[in-house]
Each structure stands twice: as structure tokens, then as C-alpha cells.
Amino acid sequence: MSQFFVKLLVISLLLGPHHLIAQMAYKVQDHYTKTETYITMRDGVKLFTAIYTPKLATATRPYPILLQRTCYGIDPYGKNNYPNNLGPSMTMMQEGYIMVYQDVRGRYKSEGQFTNMTPVTVHKSDTDMDESSDTFDTIDWLVKHVPNNNGNVGQWGMSYPGFYAAAGLLSNHPALKASSPQAPVSDFFFDDFHHNGAFLESYFLLFPWFGVPKKDTTTFAWYDSPPVNTAKVVRDGYQIYLDQGPLTFADTYYKENVFWQETVNHPNYDDFWRKRAVLQHVQPNLKTAVMTVGGWFDAEDLSGPLNLYKTIEKRSPGTYNTIVMGPFGHGGWAYETGHTLHSNLYFGDSLASFYMNEIEAKFFRHFLKGVGNNTGLPEAYMFDTGLKKWNQFDQWPAARIHKQKLYLNAAGTLDQQPPKKIESVSYPSDPMKPVPHTEDLTSTMNFTPYNYMSEDQRFAGRRPDVLVFQTGTLSEDVTLGGEIKAYLNVASTGTDADFFVKLIDVYPLDEPNHAYMPNKNVTLSNYWQMVRSEMMPARFRNSFEKPQPLRAGQKTAVHFPLQDVLHTFKKGHRIMIQVQSTAFPLFARNPQTFVRNPYKAKASDYAKATQTVFNDSFIEVDLLAGAITEHAQQSVWNFEDYRPSVIGMAPFENGAQSVSTSTSVVTLRFSQKMDTRYYSFGKGPLGLESMARVKKLLGFSEDAKSFSFELDVKPNQRYQLVIGQSFRNENGDRLKPYLIDFKTKE
Description:
Elements: H1 3-9, H2 12-25, H3 28-31, E1 32-40, E2 46-54, E3 63-70, H4 90-95, E4 98-103, H5 131-145, E5 149-158, H6 160-169, E6 176-182, E7 194-195, E8 198-199, H7 207-211, H8 237-244, H9 251-254, H10 258-265, H11 271-274, E9 289-295, H12 303-315, E10 321-326, E11 339-342, E12 345-349, H13 351-369, E13 380-384, E14 389-393, E15 402-408, E16 414-415, E17 424-429, H14 458-461, E18 467-470, E19 478-492, E20 498-506, E21 528-537, E22 556-561, E23 565-569, E24 574-580, E25 609-614, E26 618-625, H15 639-642, E27 646-650, E28 665-670, E29 681-682, E30 693-700, E31 706-712, E32 718-723, E33 738-743
Parallel strand pairs: 3-4, 3-5, 5-6, 6-9, 9-10, 10-13
Antiparallel strand pairs: 1-2, 2-4, 7-8, 11-12, 13-14, 15-16, 15-26, 17-25, 18-24, 19-22, 19-23, 19-25, 19-26, 20-21, 20-24, 27-28, 28-31, 29-32, 30-31, 32-33
């Protein structure tokens, strides 16, 4: 979605050494003729358009038209200025298409007013417009006025231009034969700026691109720079955003920013967002062939491609409708890097080239040039991110799946059977100490997130405010191929909460590093690879339009999808689920006090809370192959094995029934050396009335293997005190909670 990424796509350095060599040998101006023109829309607004026609085109050798409409500018401007490359790929540029680029209305050299995700006009008059009518008018002009075209038009676009390609489908122009929306923005309440309505604070720096209207046509950026110069500041976005406080800080920078004010004033899924959601307006009987493209690790637009494909499949089943999902971040299929990496993981070589040459080029070649009796492509070309290979399916999700429930056992396991007894496990959630979404703090001031989508999750799973559930070691490969849904039953001491759920592949201890590790300090031994994650505000559990507060302490159902996967958990690996309430600064912090508009929450609204997850909660997955057996072999390495524990206390034994009130100093002994910065105490099962009061902390011993404190106790009383999980060893592993329970003498 971001301009930052789209602009980089046309910079040779981003395209890698393979493209650099090709570009030096192939100059666009040697093979194409450029013209620039304005095309008049039905309401009189003129849109600036650049047309690149192959020099080999003649009346007897016509070429199809390939159109991209964009809000990011179509530079270089000027009829004698040529870009380094054209179209989606070097292959298609060399094969020859009439490449057309257009500034959408209100951007750069086009006239009119720009509107984010232009609302769809359902019933159009002769002068009503939206992106589908602008697409129709553009295509109509092109086929009638561009010399030596064959009457067939294709459209493509990535990210925000992917939205324009998706909206162009609604034009239903008879000449539009093929369209490839790639990482298309489909709905800003679920893509990019929000996930299920939860605001992505990581997008804060992008608002100048979309919220500042231009005053006149221009070839230069007219909007202000981002409020933070990331090149000149410490790049710890976690601290920077935390120090800024509640989201009201944004008015310091964006009080006049149109899109920020629209976002603030529409915190719920109202007509403002619905009218902009292209998915809401997909029509039956679409005549254009569609190939939607996405990346499994696309932190910007994962919802868009998956749900555009599914929506067309549902509403227009007769349409040629296909989907491609590869092991890429945002747009990674559009440029070759040689070794295909995401975060610390290696997926193979030349995977982008395979997509561009064997999938994308075939699609357009067939529908626009009439090559072959069919495309030779499957309904779904999907990359298995566990086995690291392409798979083909005749429908998606695959036909042979069966639903599998994985229950979140309070003991920390994932069970296939529902619990016989309802139990729960709790964790603290402090918005002033949120869980970071990444270990790489230098990435937290980027324009948009990237690597976290497959990052190692050990840093989070070893915190006290993150719950961990996992299977034993898998005795055979298990493939999840399709949808994932979280069915949480939760309670909170607050009146609002977010729940961030992660599906994780736990590698075995003997997993070797691959040859292309980008970070030599990372080890794949016991790597906790995030496969999928999603955030859900509890306020929207029943309706995205009408948020509701939680009732403190009341068990409540919170259900939501995590988006699809195709991932094989290999033999010897384990399946893990993590549950937490913050992922900062990727997502803005929930105040945990219900307010009508979270964007206007005050500092006093932010409160600590205890979140409880009940063991009848489960994650439902589409199981494609393999079996998660009830008695899977337990891992040689077990979560409980590395946790420190209390191995003794003095001067009396735990459970003593006749403790002298003069014996007030208690010393605990630990199984491991502890981190002396952390400690906590809590109430036991008998509640606050029986909680022993800590009068004075005496602290850790010199070797950090014992801890002393003084209690204030009275005669003939039963006392309890929980030594909490905030205690941790030097590696950050949390203490097994320890209940002190004793009675004093009369």
C-alpha cells in the first residue's frame, strides 16, 4: 500500500542484480515510443496518462494494452523521459504490450479531487463517478484512440494500485479481458491501517501521503514530510510511540490532515468505510478473467487478496478466478533477489522469477494475446511455507480438508478434545509495558512493518503477559491448508481488551541454520516461527458497527479469523499458539477501559488489567494432511524444563501450621540464578483477606539464587502469598508460580 514501497519498485537497486544486468542490456526507449495525454472522464475531469507503445506495433501486428492506474505518480514525466522498466516484469516488457500508466484523479498531474479508497457509486448517472467509471472511460478512450492496439486490455496493480485494479473489475468494460490485482487493498478497516478495526500505529508516518490534498497539477510531492525524520533519530519506535502517549498526540502533527481526521471520526465500521470497501460491491457475472496475487508474509495487505478471491468465487462463480500466494512480504514477487528470504527464513532460489515467468506472463499472454487453448494454470497456485514448495489446487480452500479444533488447555497444551472440567489461565496486561511486536527495534520506525510476519517469537513467549500453548513433538508431517479461526472464551478485569493470537511453528533443537542467514546471531535451533497472527478488539466481538464494553469479570466469547495459511509442520516440530493483548507499536494500545472513541482516549483511561482465557477456547484449523495425534511423542525439550522454580524456603516449611509471629523474615531458594530486576507477589486462592502483607523487601542474595523479604503477620491467622511469574532467570524464563500457605500460632 505504501508509496515508499511502490516508489522503490521502480528503483533499480531494489530489483536486484539480475534486473540490473537485464536493464543495462535493454533500454525502454530503444523498444518503446512514449506519448503523454489527458483523457477526459464523464464528469469533465481530465486524467494524465502516459502511453508506451512497442516500436514493432503496426496495423498488421497489433499489441494488447496493459493498464496501471496509481495514486503514486507515473514518473518520469516528460515525453522524452523513460523509466528503467515497464510493466509487471522484464519478461512481459520484452514480449511487448502497450503499457499505459495513469495518475488517478486528484494525484500529481491529474485533475480533480483525490479521495482515499473512492466510495463506490452503485447507481451511476451520466456524470456520477467512482474508480470503476474512471477505469471504464479510460479503457474506452484507449481502445478507440491508441494506434495499433488489438482491442484487448489488461489491468494490474500492486498494493494501492491493486485496489484500482480490483475496482476496475466493476467497470465491466467489454475490452477488459484480464486483471491482476496484486496485494490489493480491499477495505481500510481490515487492511493496512486497521486489522479488525484495531489501528496500526506503525502506519502513523504514512498519513501525509494520503491526507493532504494538492492544490494544482504537479510532478512533485506536494505533501509535508513525515513528522519524524527516521534518518536522524534513534530508531526505537517502541520508545518513541510509548513516550507520545495516547493517540491524541497525533493532532500535534495531523490536525489539518484530512485522512487522519476521517480515521479519528470514524472509529467504527460505518457507512464511511463500507462505501470504500470494494469487496462489498463485487457483482455477479464478471466477464474479466482475474488472477489475484498475494504474499503469505504480507504485513500490509494479506486480507485483501484472500478475500477478493473468495468474494468473486462466491458472488460470480462463472468468472475465471484464480489466486496465487507465495512466500513473500509485500510485493516480493515483483522483483528477484536470487535467494528468497523472509526475516530469518530461506524458501528457495529465484521464486519471484518463477512467478513472473511461469504464472503471471502466462496469464496475460493467454487472455490478451490469445496464446494457447488455456492458461495452463491451476485455480490456486499456493506455496507451502513449511515444505517450501509450490502446490497446485483446483479450489481454495482445498476440497479435501477437514476441520480440526485445538483446545487451549490451562496446563499449556493444545488438545483435540474439549475439556471435561472448565479451568482457566490468566496473564497481566499493562498498556504502559506492552508486548513488543518484534525483537528488531530498528524496524519499528519503518513506514510499514515487514519481517515480523515470520519472525522468531521466543522473545514474546517467555514474557509473563503472553500465554503459550503447544502440542508435543509431531510424529508425522501435519499440513494446515486453508482458514484459521480463533474461538476464545475470555474474561477481563477491564471493560475493553484486545486479543492477539499467533500460530507458531516450533523447530526442533537440532534444526541447522541455512547458508544465507541474514543475522548471524539468530539460531534456527528451537526457532519459534510465526506462521500467522491477527489482532481482535473485544469491543467489536458482536458488531464492527456498534462496539460494546466488556463486563468486568464476566466470561465472554470473542471469535475472529486469522486469515489462511498453507504450511506443513514437519515431523519433529511442534504447533504452538500464543495469546497476548498487546503487539506494540504495530498496533496502538487498547486503553482497557471502554471509551466510545479510542482515538480520543485520555491518559487516565489507560489501565492495567488481568486477562483470563478459559480452556474451552479453541483454534479451528483446516487440516489438509497428517494427524495431530492425542499421544504424540513429547518433546525432548519441554517448556517446563527450563523454567526456574522455588526449591525451598526458610525458616519454616511451606504448609506449616504453627508459625511464630516473631519469625517474619522469609527466604526463598531458587533452582536457577535469577534476574534481580524482577519480582512480584499476588493473592492466593483464599483471596485478599488472607494475603500475607510484605512489610519489607530484603532482596536477592549475592549469587541471585535466593530472595528474602519480611512479612507482617498476626497470631492465629492463615496466610497465603503467591510468588509470581514476574520473577525470572537470567534468560528471561518465568518462574513457576509458587504458593506459600501457612498458619500462625495463637
